[in-house]
Amino acid sequence: MSGIVGRLLGTGSQLARSLLGAAQLPIKESAAGFKVKSRLKLRCRSCYFTRVDGRLHVECNEHPRHKAREIYNVKTLW
Fold it and tell me: What secondary structure letter does DSSP report for 26?
């Protein structure tokens, strides 16, 4: 029975989904965090540098995927 249900749901049939009462999951846009890089650069005109807790960050309002930060320097801890 589970094989048949799996096939019906896997095909994307709206009728099968409504008959079986399968709830549609909300679409979630993924938001990535900072890329961690040893060498930072500005990738477009909207990118700019900021310094947070002694670490250099690249922020971008136009393209959020351009966000990046420096590698945390462990040697400064001691």
Answer: P
